[in-house]
Amino acid sequence: MKYGDERNPGERSVDIEEKLMLVEKDLEEIVTRSELRQLLEAEKHPKAYWGFEPSGQRRLRQPRPD
Amino acid sequence: MHLGTGFLCGAKIADMVEAGFDFTIFLADWHAWINNKLGGVMENIRLCGAYLKEGFAALGLTPSRVRFLWASELVARERYWENVLRVAKKATLSRVIRCLPIMGRALNPADVDAASLIYPSMQVADIFELGVDCACAGLDQRKAHMLARDVAEKLHLKKPVCLHTHLLPSLAGPSSRMGGVYDEDEALNLQISSKMSKSIPRSCIYIHDSPEDIRAKLMEAYCPPKQAAGNPVMEIARYVVFAKQKVLRLERKEKFGGPVDVEGYPQLEALYAAGKIHPLDLKNGVAEALIKILEPVRRHFKGKEDLLQRMVELEKAFR
To answer: Domains along chain B?
Structure first.
């Protein structure tokens, strides 16, 4: 656990719950929820990414006509 | 940029930024090239990437709030391809083939070129290369993410936490028209194959669509009465409209019940399932709400008509 700021543990845990709610909202799947919680407890600014293929098309391809 | 990308993905990214995440939007141009998007022409892909960047900015995800990175930049790093190979050496060929649905290809590899086999290893290597704690994607990418967690363990690297969002269905509705199997799990397979499908004309709403186009597309949309599950219009209400506002107003003539303010998706679902809301009224209401929600995007692209026009032409050419 990093203790980078001076907030008391009680305040921190409320903060974590709020962050968890924000992140989990409307998600279909989390692998895994406990790891996510640990991450939010350990890091103030954890790193995340989302990849997008720049494309004018949908991602699903039509099967080639035979 | 289609509605799902802008709103499901965009909203989730905004949530995570608010939760303090250091967030990177990765413009996977090399991956798009391997996947033969936009004719497999890098110039087209880069134009589209620039357009995506503007689309995100229009939705509040500006370069000051998120980092934008091209795959080209990652690929140019000295050890990138070595790391791709390191990943590939820890995955069986059959496991990689089972990852093909992440590229939008069915599990049958009949018409797949060899370059596609490198793609999943690249996606996994990207995760390690970027050093992220969390990898986010639509549910259709989960095979790549499970592979990443597997390989991370084998390579003694940090396992990414994986966050998967819902896939918005095509306006044309769930269909086995797509052919092919994308996942062994039937429910997931249906969700993946019904995804917002841009190659079926007017089955997808773009964030830059004119009000006329939005109304027309929604009017044509599949919207079974009393049924919320697999109903693209209901899903737009749920994941886009109610994500942005607390109330959905349905303007109705008095003889059809008069106007009604629906508070939240659960209430909408209950009313719709009970037949108290007609599909036409739902479509009208969602269309008007969507038009308002997307107004900032249309405003953002005023003065960028050139980019938008070129994008629209590309989309038409490669539909």
So the answer is: 3-165 (3.40.50.620), 210-293 (1.10.240.10)
Q: What's the pLDDT at A14?
A: 66
ipTM for the whole predicted complex goes beyond 0.85: yes
Question: Contacts of residue A23 in chain B, CB cutoff 8 Å?
Answer: 15-16, 19, 163
| CA distance to partner chain B, nearest, from residue A8 (Å) | 19
CA distance B116 to B83: 17
A5 touches B: beta carbon within 8 Å: no
How far is B245 from B240, CA to CA, in rounded Å?
9
Cβ pair B105:A61 closer than 8 A: yes
What the block records as the tokens of B70 is 């091209």
Instruction: Show residues of chain A in contact with B130, CB under 8 Å.
Output: 47, 49
Percent of chain B with pLDDT over 70: 94
What's the CA gap between B156 and B50, in Å, rounded?
36
Cβ distance B169 to B232 under 8 Å? yes
Residue A18: predicted pLDDT:
95
Contacts of A59 in chain B (CB under 8 A): 103-104, 140, 195
Of all residues in chain A, the one with the smallest CA distance to B26 is: A51
Q: Comparing C-alpha atoms, which of B6, B9, B136 is closest to residue B58?
A: B6
Give the pLDDT of residue B166.
92
- Cβ within 8 Å of residue B268, ≥6 positions away: B234, B237, B238, B242, B248, B262, B277
Distances (CA, A) of A2 to A16, A41, A42, B85, B134: 13, 8, 6, 34, 18
Q: How far apart are CA A31 and CA B214, in angstroms?
A: 35
What are the pLDDT digits (tens) for B75-101?
A: 999 999 999 999 999 999 999 999 998
Residue spans per domain, chain A: 14-42
Minimal-distance CA residue of chain B relative to A34: B161
